[in-house]
Amino acid sequence: MGGAIHDKKEQMNYLHNRLNLVMDVLDTMDPEEAGVEEIDRLLSMLDDIETKCKQFRHDWSE
């Protein structure tokens, strides 16, 4: 995988891309066929984004 991202612009691009990925997953989900697994996957993706936001927040406060 990639290394640490310390540049603020790169951090924002990373978050933007991850959020776009979440939106793409939502757009392709069929609400009639989606199950708990799909919801759990979305929650996992959002948790990963939250973790990165916290890491980036720490970087920005330095």
From TrEMBL:
InterPro entries: YfjT-like
Domain of life (superkingdom): Bacteria
Record-given protein name: YfjT
Organism: Halalkalibacter akibai (strain ATCC 43226 / DSM 21942 / CIP 109018 / JCM 9157 / 1139) (Bacillus akibai)
